Amino acid sequence: MKKYVAEFIGTLVLVLCGCGTAVACGGFTGGTGAGYLGVAAIALAFGMCIVAGAYAIGDISGCHVNPAVSLAVLIKGGLTVKDFVGYVIAQILGACAGSGILAVITATSDLSGSGANGFGAASGVGLSMVGALVVEIVLTFIFVMTILGVTSNEKTAPLAGIVIGLTLTLVHLIGIPLTGTSVNPARSLSAAIFGGADALAQVWVFIVAPLVGAALAAIVHKALYAEKK
User: Fold this and answer.
1) Which of 134, 163, 169, 199, CA to CA, is 20 to 30 A from 59?
2) Are 137 and 212 in contact, with CB atoms under 8 Å apart?
3) By C-alpha distance, which of 36, 191, 54 is closest to 124?
């Protein structure tokens, strides 16, 4: 149960602080200058949440805070089906709690939005649905491959939190203008629930694509490490 509580807390903090920064920065509407400064702030917020979480709860649950990461670990053989289900439930509940707290904050201020992902008119650059699927699969693949790689080596494992946090920052820097960057189904689902009908209509992309990207990363990682051995 401690592992599930840790995942709940970690995902809550990730969504509250990451999506909260996106809301506070006014999101991204394309272009450069002030808009891109907002992208950098949002990307750093998500990345720093992972760094903090890795060292706060990493020893308890591994700090997945992301169903896509848990799926990859399951495929790799580092998680039982029972724990996978428990992790995902805890992550979704934690994400919804984070979005709920953010909703309370925005309701008592001039801020608006939930940090939901989107494509088409909801994308800063008008990215199509197919484009969004490709972006999310590729970015999740990069993110999860990094996680599996850095945590598989005893020499690099102590630096895993920093490396993973920086990688999440990286994928957000390119992904925010395109889709708002999901790479995390729990984060996307909770933001869509509090984001309204349009966000809910598109959220399937940001659930399916990260799971596909994570599964591909786990399969490729297993193949590469099997070859190495």
Assistant:
1) 169
2) yes
3) 36
3-class DSSP assignment, residue 204: coil
Which residues neighbour 205 within 8 Å (Cβ) at sequence distance 6 or greater?
A: 117, 119, 129, 132, 133, 136
What gap in Å lies between CA 165 and CA 52, rounded to an integer?
9
Tens digits of residue pLDDT in 63-95: 999 999 999 999 999 999 999 999 999 999 999
Distances (CA, A) of 83 to 73, 86, 91, 116: 11, 5, 12, 27
Q: What are 136-183's pLDDT values in tens digits?
A: 999 999 999 999 999 988 888 889 999 999 999 999 999 999 999 999
Contact 161, 54 (CB under 8 A): yes
